[in-house]
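re the bet — no i am not wrong, look at it urself. input seq straight from the record:
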Amino acid sequence: MINILEVILVLILLTVLLSLGSTRLMALVRIMVLQGVLVSLIPLFLKSHEILTFGSVVFYLAMVIIKGILIPALLYRAVKHVSIQREIEPFVGYHASIVAGLAVLLAAVFMANSLKLTLPEGRELILVCAVTTMASGFFLMLARKKAITQVIGYLMLENGIYLIGNALTQHHHNLYIVEFGVLLDLLVAVMVMGIILNNINHAFDDVDTTLLGQLKD
């Protein structure tokens, strides 16, 4: 019998590796749409999940709308506005980034086994996926020059944090409240980042953050 939760987690890991190896900004936005929706579905397939209530249904719908529609729409608009299609010269090459992602995945497996945390049944793989997603998002923020790619790394980092919450928390009501607050903060942050992207593009005709070093008083 196919374990749907494990399939979703494997797909999330694939989106992480694809994001590390993708040069096209629009492809990165599509990958984040898929990853956001998959992450939002994780709580539905946990064995300790409670019976769905009206509040939880509203929360899941809000998660999917924010992660899968609103935030990607803002990113899509930013990419179209700056007319940049690719990340040409990252700090770390794409093949090296994929190797780094695989190394992070192995390190996450080793860490999960070494810590020997008392996790609810079936949560070990979630923890591995969470650490990999969070660390890869942080790596993407540091390894790329374009501000849009760094924003995507920030979103991936938040997805990893949410997965860690699902791995370690048995009572999801508290997690819902915290995550919804984080989502609202994240939405505002992406909107602010979109404004910053436009200002960088107007000033330098590019969104390469290394150009900010040219600013003077």
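see?? The chain has a mean pLDDT of 77. told u. also Residues 7 and 71 are 24 Å apart (CA to CA). so pay up
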